[in-house]
Write a structure and sequence with these properties.
This protein has helices spanning 5-33, 37-45, 51-84, 90-110, 122-143. The protein has 152 residues and is mostly helical. Helix 4 runs antiparallel to helix 5 (122-143).
Amino acid sequence: MTKTHSARGAAGAMYAGLGLTVAATVLPYVDRATTHRLADHIRAGYPSYTRTRVDSAVTTWLVLLSVIGVLGVAAWIWTAWAVRADKRWARPAATVLLVLGVGTGLTGLLTRDTSGETGLPPELGWAGMAPCLAALLAVALLWRRPRVPGRG
């Protein structure tokens, strides 16, 4: 892969995805300090839970989402480096990471827990999907064929 306009655009999309991943990772902490949507969502699904048990569930979600976020940040940095370094395996690696990211995001967005509700409130689930849009753009740019001069 040569350093084409597409590769530079893909790297830019990756940095945008990195920013979206950081934002999606921080959002549950902002929620905990302000709106309490995650706690309210858990409380609505499990009305018999005590405040301590709801707080424990929120903490568990924060740890899980933080680990996913850190792995996502590492994946963005590693893949952006591979693209910028013009590594041959950058395109397939980015594609695999896109599939993993979409799968992880959809799991957070759609998986129902024992209460019958999704484990995460929709706002946090959709926030987890936002980096996938940047990943889709990056992968599309990486696999785009460069234009050959003189061939319209």
